[in-house]
Specification:
The complex is a heterodimer of chains A (319) and B (311). With 319 residues, chain A is of the alpha/beta class. Helix content of chain A is 28%, strand content 22%. Chain B is built from 14 helices and two strands. Chain B is globular, with a radius of gyration of 24 Å. Classes of the chains: A alpha/beta (319), B mainly alpha (311).
């Protein structure tokens, strides 16, 4: 089991930094099952994506990254409420470079809200309030300029949302200062190309940078959004169900990309697709009704969950 | 349904009430088409009958002798000037209001008040706007109007265009709001998530995306401006010729009075005093052409729809 390694500072605790589980106030059994169980397992393998479209083979178990694990972000007792309604309840979780953290759980469990708190995007909801602290490289994000924070913690959304401009300008927009048109194209070209290469899109759009981004296919649009998010060289990349609007092949391309990116940037992915979580995640946090019920290495959370609620959610999928 | 069944066959099986309603709706649609076609054909026929390109470049004069009463160069310039001036006022103002309403809109009470104000302006008859403008430009902004040897009449292109812009404004606001509202929220969030401010997001993402909508609103507004007569009569003087406002130069021109195609048509119609209905017909033909052209622009802009995101 890898341990949290900060380049400086004394913190080198192992994974189990969670507070002991709070007393169960809501009992899972009373709830209607909110999740469609994934297809029954055959021989211990799970169909890829579960779409049954001929592309599916079996889950490719990712190799753990050999890159050093560096803790980039940490939430400490973070609670978020929308008005009176508590969406995230006292969540403490580390976000490390060199691995992919997947947040799973049924709809409305607070995983997206937690994700959006990491770049303070949750603040644009007028009724949202937050408690607890979130740090980025040890610095409290509430003390940072929000525009600076969001350049360092970038985000990709559920639906591909390129801006209605050219492929080039989509990425240049991320690089330019507020609204400014400068620096000029030539100066930016290298950075734009670099971002497209890292997002695995250069071969497809490198010769047509001036084409409208909205003419690309859905999968290409989403990779463009990833390139846009990577352009300013962020430390953390947040992905909010990035494949849910895409076909299985685009999904596979993006999952491969995520695994490639985890060495240079800390990746957090919210997904409702447990196969996807198993395919890409090194660590998994299972959330239910706002609580972080279980957090640990993916194999452990899926293979031998400690919590009954986790078992019920992931149960059946993995034998 | 088999291929041999026509939609009418299924209508025949409807109850009588539904059939009557169906044919009433059908007849109303056909009647509208017939009226539109009648206008176009009649005006086209008259326009062709009195077709004379020379009228477009000849200044009018008030001679009773029709050979000497000239063409409608000045009213044409008047219409064009009003279109440009009022759009220059209405478009930026309307876009700003629409952006505020859709992207800020707080406090909510103020936003509702702004919405009501727009509805009031949209519902005010143009002759009332004209009377209001007359007071405004006589009492406070006389320096922007035609100077008749010391007498402030409150008439000028600036005065007319200002009130005309109020006709176009609600259309610009409406179309821009619609365009902005059709941009999914996650597109805004994507911009914020790149560390952009709201202002940068509006300027670089939202307004470019809303451009077809803004253009549609502006073109619709121009169509209304081109067709209005009341404001021209009250605030522009509805003179035959354009009169410079005194100082000479461009400002003097904008301070000057004049007429438009609409006032020219009225003047030369049997109801007016020009007594040259054939010129009125040709001017009306040209005016109709201008408005149809603007409608065509609207259709083109509307077809170039706002960018479509995957939802």
């Amino acid at each position: 089991m890898d341990s949290v390694m900060r380049s400086e500072g004394p913190r080198s605790e192992p994974d189990l930094v969670l507070a002991p589980p709070p007393p169960v106030r809501r009992i899972l059994v009373e709830e209607e099952p909110t999740v469609v169980q994934p297809p029954a397992p055959g021989n211990g393998y799970v169909p890829l994506g579960g779409h049954g479209n001929g592309l599916t083979t079996q889950v490719r178990r990712r190799e753990p990254s050999s890159a050093p694990k560096i803790e980039r972000m940490r939430t400490e007792g973070v609670s978020i409420a929308y008005g009176e309604k508590l969406a995230v309840d006292e969540v403490t979780i580390p976000v490390r470079q060199g691995e992919v953290l997947a947040l799973i759980g049924p709809s409305g469990c607070g995983k997206t809200t937690l994700l959006r708190s990491l770049n303070r995007l949750v603040e644009i909801t007028p009724t949202a309030t937050r408690g607890g602290t979130i740090t980025l490289d040890g610095e409290d994000i509430d003390r940072m300029e929000v525009t600076e924070l969001r350049r360092r913690v970038s985000m990709v959304f559920q639906q591909p949302n390129p801006f209605p401009m050219s492929v080039f300008d989509n990425i240049a927009y991320a690089l330019r200062e507020q609204g400014s048109r400068r620096p000029r194209k030539e100066a930016l070209h290298e950075h734009v190309a670099d971002a497209l290469v890292r997002a695995g899109l250069w071969d497809e759009v490198g010769s047509t940078l001036d084409h409208p981004a909205l003419r690309l296919s859905g999968g290409q649009q989403q990779r463009l959004c990833i390139a846009r998010a990577l352009a300013a060289r962020p430390e953390v990349l947040l992905l909010d169900e990035p494949c849910s609007a895409l076909d299985p092949r685009s999904t596979q391309v993006i999952e491969d990309l995520i695994l490639k990116l985890r060495d240079e940037v800390a990746v957090v992915i919210v997904t409702h697709n447990m196969q996807q979580a198993l395919r890409v995640a090194d660590h998994v946090g299972f959330m239910y009704l706002g609580e972080l019920v279980e957090y640990g290495p993916a194999e452990q959370v899926f293979g031998s969950p400690r919590e009954e609620r986790t078992r019920e959610y992931v149960g059946g999928a993995f034998g | 349904m088999s291929a041999a069944t026509s939609p009418l066959d299924s209508v025949r099986s409807w109850p009588l009430r539904d059939r009557l309603g169906y044919f009433a709706a059908w007849a109303a649609g056909m009647a509208l088409i017939a009226i539109a076609a009648a206008i176009l054909i009649y005006m086209g026929y008259r326009g062709a009958q009195y077709f004379n390109l020379g009228l477009l470049i000849e200044s009018p004069s008030s001679s009773l002798n029709q050979a000497k009463s000239g063409g409608f160069r000045d009213p044409l310039i008047g219409t064009a000037t009003l279109l440009v001036l009022s759009t220059l006022i209405a478009a930026p103002l309307g876009v700003t209001i629409a952006v505020w309403l859709t992207e800020y809109g707080r406090p909510a009470g103020l936003a509702r008040a702004v919405e009501s104000a727009i509805e009031v302006v949209a519902g005010t008859p143009s002759i009332v706007l004209a009377m209001f403008g007359l007071i405004l430009f006589q009492e406070w902004f006389g320096f922007l109007t035609f100077d008749a040897e010391g007498a402030v009449l409150g008439r000028s292109f600036i005065a007319a265009a200002s009130m005309m812009s109020l006709i176009a404004l609600p259309l610009v606001v409406g179309a821009t709001r619609e365009a902005l509202n059709s941009i999914p929220g996650h597109v805004r969030e994507a911009s914020y998530a790149l560390g952009k401010t709201k202002a940068a997001t509006i300027r670089r993402v939202l307004l470019p995306a809303a451009r077809p909508g803004i253009g549609t609103g502006a073109a619709l507004g121009m169509g209304r401006v081109a067709g209005d007569t009341a404001i021209v009569v009250v605030l522009l003087g509805a003179t035959l010729q354009i009169l410079n406002g005194g100082d000479g130069g461009v400002f003097g021109f904008f301070k000057g009075t004049g007429g438009t195609l609409t006032s020219y048509v009225y003047y030369n119609s049997p109801a007016g005093e020009g007594l040259a209905p054939e010129k009125a017909y040709f001017a009306a033909f040209v005016l109709l052409g201008v408005v149809i052209l603007l409608n065509f622009v609207v259709a083109r802009l509307a077809r170039r729809r706002e960018p479509a995101w995957i939802r």
